Amino acid sequence: MNGSNSQTFAQSNALLRDKRHKTFKIIVIGDSSVGKTCLTFRFCGGHFPERTEATIGVDFRERKLKIDQEEIMLQLWDTAGQERFRRSMVQHYYRNVNAVVFVYDVTRMSTFQSLPSWIEECNQHNLNYNIPRILLGNKCDCKGEIAVPTNVAQRFADHHGMPLFETSAKDDSDCDHVEAIFLTLAHKLKAAKSMTLISPSQFPPDHIHRAVVESVGRERNGMEVNDSESCYC
Amino acid sequence: MVDVVCVCQFVSLDYHLVCGYGGCVRVSLSLCITVWCVDIALESLHLVLLTFTLSTGAINDLATHPGHYEQAVAAGLKRGGPANEEIERDLHRSLPEHPAFQSDTGISALRRVLCAYAWRNPAIGYCQAMNIVASVLLVYCNEEEAFWLLAALSERLLPDYYNTRVIGALVDQGVLEDLILDHMPGLHTRLSELGVISLVSLSWFLTLFLSVMPFEAAVHVVDCFFYDGARVVFMVALAILAANQEKLEQCNDEGEAMMVLSEYLGAVTTPESRYGRRKSSVVVDEGQEEEVNVIGLLETAYRDFGFITNLAVERLRVKHRLRVVQTLEDTMMRNTLRTVGPDCLLGQADLKVEYCDSLTGLATIHNRDYRVYEQRFLPTMSQEQFINMWRTVYSFFAFETNQDIFTSLSRVGTLLLQIGEVGRKVKASRGSPSEGASHSANSSSSDGNSHNDNLGSESQAAALVPDQDVPLATDASLTTKPERTSNLKNPSNTSNTSSNFTSKPQDIPDKEPDRHTPLHSPSQDPHQCQEGGCEKCRPPTQPYPSQEWCISFEQFLANVANEENLVHFFEQQVKVAEEVQKLRTRNTISQSASGSSASSPS
To answer: Which of A83, B422, B546, B564 is most buried, with most CB under 10 Å away?
Structure first.
């Protein structure tokens, strides 16, 4: 499946690839079977894949978009979620990443609970805070089984300075559209990129604000739990 | 499919009979490792079972463990737990295009095999990629055989591939990079610029190409792998890269390179393919791609890279293994600090956590074969590191009420300090063999204690034997040392230590122990100690002890293992996962709690 999925896109895109396109690399991370493959597939392939194989290592999909009369390429890197891969492998995937998408499964609390460690993981790779990050709750079509209440997720997202989207790769008729989410991200990326082109030291103000909030939060947290003099900021 | 299974079972029966002579048959078969023979073998029939019986030894396991599989299935299914949950989620994500895994028959067979294996080998449990391998095996053999093959794969053929940190696959990644560098230097430069190898090779190795090629083609590779060992994977990998060399060299980013490779791999086929290429759920532009015959690929692999031997692979593995483990340890240290840092009970003990972590980590992750090897090559620990680590060890026992543990701890600590000192003296005496030894004896005789002579002769003796024996020599003296120590000038040493720590186990602050305990005093005020003349019971009292003082992991392990209380403590079944989960839950809650408060302006 890995092979054939990307292969298809390779056929449609690789040959047509225009070297002048701005390319943005987006890494999609989250626990195993939260639907990372389906989400990326939904966006790049246009529909929900009926049968997917567990992702081993990393998979890759891309899609060309036209934003403000300019064509850009979004590369979605779909990673393996199992913990043993995370600890050993994911470091390779963070090279030149332009945005991070955290995914959890709204029907499984545990996938939400492991988000802090994914965020930690991400922080470790010295990604700047100005790199857009978004939080995606997937499978919200399973209405009866929702285990992660929106307000809890929203609070978490606020705390980490990320926008939250709840969606479903399968049926996004009455939640946030997968398409719209990634397009938003693409807009943000493009805007950020052109800003950095003008002046590399300029970051969008909201990002600076976010960075401050985040570090304050961590410090606070450290104080609360630890009540020692050490601070890990 | 039926006929394949029948023939395979016939073959398996046949070779079941000759399994005793496996060696001989293997030898004669190994003559066939030539391009044409592989070709013939592959054209005729998948030899999965044949080679499985011979090379993997799986059939021996099968024959010698009747009923083991049934037992494993029963226990595995009943057990539950995270591994089973993971398996359950992946059942429908294993070879989903194959009709066998679209009905309950195949799914439950796969469930049984994976759960049984997770039960058999809790060190591995379940690793994604095993589901894909197992599902393909199930297409070609029965459940029990698939089970034993999976066991042979994960325990012998792909050492450490599926363990909790997929170390084996990482090691082989390094091996592959080396091989590319040696045989395709031009491509290597490009590939490492792109960082592609680490991206693609994991799935190649972990699933033996089953997840990247159409499985009917990939089983040919698996056949050869069972038949001819690990070198096949590397040969095929190199052949794939060589075939795409030109395209890869023109790639501008890693995405493009990934596409080139997956495009190529997706088009690998086999003449007798029944299911065609793996149907992807995307629109497939059929026929646009040039198909690659897997037999041709294997021929190229054998022709162009057949000179790669298993021995060479093994050598490279050894080389990379150390690097991989080291890197992982480093990452883990950083992780531990960052993740655990803010909400860690140990608080300030950051550096020490790291060290302990790496030690315990190393002790647990390595399988038997590598264990001895790695211990020997682990870097030794300096005195400062040791002292830091030992402090942390004490904080492990923060809530411990058993006094004996602290007695044991202080005993081990003292012994290790002494061992380090002895080692230092040995090294000193080696600089000027006869003089050094006598000097150490002389200097220590200022105590006027018979014990000193003991040590002096010890170091002399140790100086004569090679490195590895040093721990043994000192070890021998260990059993008697504690008593001696207490007979010496500082009889309160051990009791001091334990009482210090037991009296305030909860708050072991940074500085306090330093003042009281002999363990820490050396680094703090070595001069004072020296004047005190208590060299023997406070061995590391030289002005610059940390330069030479060192202990090895073996010494550490031996000493800890010598203390029954400690062994018991560490072997106690603690549900780590639960504890961690508790901590995490608390973390999440407190984070979301503080999240609301943090959003208010600071």
So the answer is: B422
CATH of the domain at A122: 3.40.50.300
Which residues does chain A have within 8 Å of residue B331's beta carbon, measured at their own beta carbons? 87, 91
> Exposed (0-12), middle (13-18) or buried (19+): which is B296, by Cβ within 10 Å?
middle
Question: Quick check: B391 and B424 in contact, CB under 8 A?
Answer: no
Q: CB-based contact (8 Å) between A222 and chain B?
A: yes
With contacts defined as CB-CB under 8 Å, which chain B residues touch A41? 281-282
CB contact (8 A) between residue A53 and residue B202: no
Q: Is A204 among the domain residues? A: no
Residue B385: its pLDDT value, please?
82
| B254 contacts A95? CB cut-off 8 A | yes
Q: Work out the minimum CA distance from A228 to partner chain B, whole angstroms.
A: 7
The pLDDT, as a whole number, for residue A113 is 94
- pLDDT, tens digit, 9 for 90 and up, residues A98-149: 999 999 999 999 999 999 988 888 887 766 767 899 999 999 999 899 999 9
Q: Which residue of B has its CA nearest to A120?
A: B339
Q: Is residue A130 part of a domain?
A: yes
How confident is the prediction for chain A on average, in pLDDT? 76
pLDDT number for residue A194: 59
* B251 CA: distance to closest CA in chain A (Å): 10
Place of tokens 């997937």: A138
Kindly report the nearest CA distance between residue B529 and chain A, in angstroms: 31
Q: Which residue of A has its CA nearest to B277?
A: A4
| Predicted local distance difference test score (pLDDT) of residue B529 | 38
Nearest 10 degrees: CA dihedral of B221, B222, B227, B230?
90
Q: Decide: A177 and A48 in contact? Cβ < 8 Å.
A: no
- Report yes or no: B26 and B51 within 8 Å, Cβ to Cβ: no
Classify residue A200: in a domain, yes or no.
no
Are residues B206 and A9, on separate chains, in Cβ contact within 8 Å? no
Cβ pair A58:B199 closer than 8 A: yes
Q: How many Cβ pairs closer than 8 A exist between chain A and B?
A: 247
Instruction: Mention the CATH class of domain B167-273+291-308.
Output: mainly alpha
CA-to-CA distance for B470 and B474, rounded, in angstroms? 6
CATH of domain B53-164: 1.10.8.270
Nearest CA in chain A to B259: A10
Q: Which residues of chain B have pLDDT under 70?
A: 1-56, 273-289, 334-378, 399, 430-547, 587, 590-602
Residue of A nearest to B600 (CA): A213
Query: What's the gap in Å between the CA of A200 and the closest CA on chain B?
Result: 22
User: With a CB-CB cutoff of 8 Å, which residues 109-168 of chain A face chain B?
Assistant: 112-114, 116-117, 120-121, 123-124, 152, 155-156, 158-160
Evaluate whether residue A214 is within a structural domain. Answer: no
- What sign does the CA torsion over A210, A213, A219, A221 have? negative
Residue whose pair of structure tokens reads 């960082």 in the numeric block: B195
Angle at B538 between CA B534 and CA B539, to 5 degrees: 105
B586 contacts on A by Cβ (under 8 Å): 225
Nearest CA among B93, B118, B120, B119 for reference residue B107: B93
Supply the range of the domain harboring residue A108.
Answer: 22-194
Task: Give DSSP secondary structure letters for B249-306.
Answer: HT-SSHHHHHHHHHHHHHTEE-TT-SS-SPPPSSPP-TT-SPPEEHHHHHHHHHHHHT
Domain count, chain A: 1
Which residue out of B90, B94, B211 would a mutagenesis test of the A interface target, given it has the greatest number of A Cβ atoms within 10 Å? B211
- So what's the pLDDT on residue B534? 38
- Report pLDDT digits (tens) over B356-374: 555 555 444 443 334 444 4
Which member of B164, B167, B595 has the closest CB to residue A217?
Answer: B595
| Domain residue ranges in chain B | 1-18+378-428+548-577, 53-164, 167-273+291-308, 319-375
- Token reading at B105: 């028959």
